[in-house]
Amino acid sequence: MDMEVRSLTKPQLRLEEYFPGRTRAYGIFQDRFGKLRRRFLVEIAGTLNGSLLTLVENFCYDDGEREQRTWSIKCLDHGLYEGHTDGVLGTAQGAGQENVLNWSYSFALPIGERRWKVRFNDWFFLHEDDVLFNRAEISKFGIRLGEATMVFHKLD
What is the superkingdom listed in this entry's lineage (predicted)? Predict the structure, then answer.
């Protein structure tokens, strides 16, 4: 996806402006054939300390599974970001322009008793009224495994 083609001038997406406070996200995961596999809700608490954004994400899946993930994201100059959380292999990299942000990373995804090294390629799009859309393609060895779609809404 070409960021320049997709971006609009308003509203501006800056993670350090959007995520401090409370945010709720609703999501689904579809396999590579488009079959709905999971639904989930995420409650997010964000804090900003200087240029470090911390996101505590509490996931609740439709099958009752719960998971917590804490992201530490460095907000760099010119819409660039670097982040870490448990399971990320190396460093997550983000680049934003106008209302669009691309975020990508390798992740050790738990599948049963094993962990698979997969690649996440996320695209975020900020809409009016503080609604943020996210589409994340998950792949392994360049083969698309599925896609997560989320809609974020500010609570504060």
Answer: Bacteria
User: What token pair was written down for 21?
Assistant: 């406070």
Query: Phi first, then psi: what are they for 9, rounded to 5°?
Result: -80, -30
Full-model pTM: 0.90
How many structural domains comprise the chain?
1
**Secondary structure E strands in the chain:** 21-31, 36-49, 52-61, 66-75, 80-84, 88-97, 100-111, 114-126, 131-140, 143-154
Q: What is the pLDDT of residues 25-47, one digit of tens each?
A: 999 999 999 999 999 999 999 99
pLDDT for residue 156:
79
Instruction: List the domain range (segments joined by +) for residue 124.
Output: 3-154
Could you tell me which residues come within 8 angstroms of residue 85 by beta carbon, excluding any fewer than 6 positions away? 69, 70, 71, 72, 92
Contact of 57 with 70, CB cutoff 8 Å: yes
